[in-house]
Design a protein that fits this description.
Strand content: under 5%
Number of strands: 0
Number of domains: 2
Low-confidence stretches: none
Mean pLDDT: 88
Shape: globular
Distance between the termini: 15 Å
Helix content: over 70%
Number of helices: 8
Order of helices and strands: HHHHHHHH
Radius of gyration: 20 Å
Largest sheet: none
Length: 185
């Protein structure tokens, strides 16, 4: 089977919208507070960018290594569109136990999609990382809220990654049936 490649769009509307909002906000700050305030904000934003660049690079590098280390066939079989509930469960467990922030997790999720995972498992992975992440529970929640609260919160959130994955799979199949893109199937 010939490998299908995702077409790269030459124009990203989301980026254009965010850029437009940023420019409008910058103009509003300039008109209200002057050049000095705009430069102070830009300086702080540049410092934030410089601090985040190494983390972003590390996350992308990890994702690149994941795509090279894991065999495409295994990923497609374990967490692909035909993996069923077991694939969603595997993705949920991976999302719950993988440490790291969004600059690591999102590139890894994208790498899994490139390797043959379906949109449902990617949604289950990211949802589990957000709702069930053990490192956040151990470091932040247990000391502040105690084990009873954390236990109930995790128990209540436990089915949500699976439900999100099932909904994403259903939506992707409906889009594909209507003649839309089936790139995540």
């Amino acid at each position: 089977m010939a490998e299908r490649r995702r077409r790269i769009r030459s124009f990203e509307w989301s980026t254009a919208i965010i850029a437009s909002i940023s420019v409008a906000a910058g103009v509003a700050v300039y008109l209200r507070d002057g050049t000095e305030k705009v430069l102070a904000i830009l300086t702080k934003d540049l410092q934030l960018l410089v601090g985040m660049l190494p983390k972003m690079a590390a996350g992308c590098l990890i994702a690149a290594f994941v795509t090279r280390l894991l065999p495409r066939e295994v990923v497609a079989r374990v967490v692909g569109s035909e993996s069923g509930l077991l694939g969603l469960l595997v993705a949920m467990i991976m999302g719950a136990v993988l440490p790291g922030g969004p600059l690591t997790i999102y590139p890894v999720a994208a790498a899994f999609l490139v390797l043959g995972a379906d949109v449902g498992t990617a949604v289950a992975f990211i949802t589990a990382w957000n709702l069930l992440g053990y490192n956040r529970a151990l470091i932040w929640e247990l000391p502040f809220f105690g084990p009873e609260f954390v236990g109930w919160r995790i128990l209540i959130a436990l089915p949500l990654p699976i439900l999100g994955g099932l909904l994403a799979r259903t939506a992707a199949r409906m889009i594909a049936k209507r003649g839309g893109s089936d790139q995540w199937m």
